[in-house]
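Before going further, learn to read the protein records used in this course. The integers have meaning only within a learned vocabulary of local backbone shapes. The record below shows the convention in full.
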Amino acid sequence: MKHLLILLIISFVLPTNAQDVAILKYNGGGDWYANPTAVPNLIEFANTNIKTNISKNPQTVAVGSEDLFSFPILFMTGHGNILFSEDEAENLKNYLISGGFLHISDNYGLDKFLRKELKKVFPTLELQEIPSNHPIYNQTFKFPNGIPKIHEHDKKRAQGFGIFYQGRLVLFYDYETDLSDGWEDAIIHNDPKNVREKALKMGANIIEYAFKN
């Protein structure tokens, strides 16, 4: 009964028209704070090119905090360990099934930790590769071949994975591409302009999709 009451409350808390975004802070020792210029740059790009009105300075929110429910989309990245407590996993699940959206960018080294912790959030659901005809690749910017390759890690193809809950995509995970590196200031990785633009366009698509769905 307690969990039902929580779900009923948060279904009204999560704003349907808010346009602020947040960076997800997690425990375990991984660098959740990696790529500090990435999300601000993406916000600037989205506000300019897809006419969003997002606050230019993203907030930070802990995975176990009720503040999650103030944001329609959360961004998560890092290189290392992730650890969700039982309560944190439940809080993140409640956020996602109540209308929230999580984008995770593997900054290299995140994958093996992430997959284990996501099973705490959705024990019966699996990450699925998102096909190139999915709407997330076909918002303002078109990616007919699916997720673009931005950075090389292990000479594997870029993949976009997702978790669907009752038919809705609630989580998008970019793997072997590192979109968030492509969003950072140009001087940091010295990416060519066209590579950074691809990363920012795909990021804008993710925001646009999350706001619509």
Summary: The helical segments are 2-13, 38-49, 86-97, 111-121, 179-183, 186-189, 193-212.
